[in-house]
UniProtKB/TrEMBL annotation:
It comes from the Archaea. Belongs to the DODA-type extradiol aromatic ring-opening dioxygenase family. Its cofactor is Zn(2+). This is Extradiol ring-cleavage dioxygenase class III enzyme subunit B domain-containing protein. GO terms for molecular function: ferrous iron binding; oxidoreductase activity, acting on single donors with incorporation of molecular oxygen, incorporation of two atoms of oxygen; zinc ion binding. Residues 30-255 form the Extradiol ring-cleavage dioxygenase class III enzyme subunit B domain. The keyword S-adenosyl-L-methionine does not apply. Keywords: Metal-binding, Oxidoreductase, Zinc.
């Protein structure tokens, strides 16, 4: 039986959710190359908390977790169902590794999840869950969490990390989507690509120490961290980079497929 691949997808500026960009057009075609999942488990940059939790709502709301954008962005809904049965599988798998996972029955889907999914699966007809990013754990443990989740691939669950491999809002040229890419951003993006290809877990787990521009690229690590869960779940599966590029001069939109 073939395994479901795991993904790391960029999401970038929330305005991408309105469509009409190079990246949104890529997402519209990406699903054609993927087996259809039974459910989707997303690890988004936009759900950090102390400890692990999984969403258990049957009808998760669409969370508009951003400010100062055009009205039409706040009118978007992504009415995918939840799937508590898969949530229980997540709890059991992580529990086998000694992790305690809370059941969050009220949280919906943040834009790190629905913004890419509305183009990948525009009919919203696949159940979606989210797993939180545990703030207190070192990055290296996120590989372990991904490895524990890997059996979900045999159950046709698509594990998807959502973030950006370069993300520093203080260095973004918001006025120009096609602004010239800054040298330090390109350098870090290239570093991460090499570490993923060589499966260098030590460097991936210490990006601030492993690259001279690591801290500029990520003042905080929440947009980077979902990569490690996706990579851990991907195991030794082949790696491809179906999208490479930048927006606004310094936001990496690189997306990765494992398997």
């Amino acid at each position: 039986m073939s395994l479901m691949p795991t993904l790391f997808t960029a999401h970038g500026n929330p305005m991408n959710a309105l469509g009409g960009t190079t990246f949104s057009r890529f997402l519209e075609g990406w699903a054609e190359d993927l087996p259809r999942p039974r459910a989707i488990l997303c690890i988004s940059a936009h759900w950090e908390r102390h400890g692990l939790a999984v969403t258990m709502s049957v009808n998760p709301e669409t969370i508009h977790d951003f400010y100062g954008f055009p009205k039409e962005l706040y009118l978007i809904t992504y009415p995918a169902k939840g799937e508590p049965e898969v949530g229980e599988e997540v709890i059991a798998l992580l529990g086998s590794g000694g992790y305690i996972v809370d059941r969050d029955r009220s949280r919906g889907l943040d834009h790190g999840t629905w913004a890419p999914l509305r183009f990948l699966y525009p009919d919203a007809d696949i159940p979606v869950l989210q797993l939180s990013l545990p703030m207190e754990l070192p990055l290296s443990e996120l590989f372990t969490i991904g490895e524990l989740l890997s059996p979900l691939r045999e159950l046709e669950v698509l594990i998807m990390g959502s973030g950006n491999l370069v993300h520093n809002l203080s260095r973004v040229d918001f006025e120009h989507r096609d602004a010239r890419v800054l040298e330090w951003a390109h350098s870090f993006d290239d570093d991460v690509k090499e570490w993923v290809l060589t499966r260098d877990h030590q460097k991936l787990g210490e990006p601030w120490m492993s690259s001279p521009v690591g801290r500029i690229s990520h003042p905080t690590l929440e947009h980077y961290a979902p990569l490690l869960v996706a990579m851990g779940a991907g195991g030794s599966s082949p790696v491809t980079f179906p999208f490479e590029g930048f927006e606004h001069g310094s936001i990496s939109m690189r997306s990765i497929r494992f398997g």
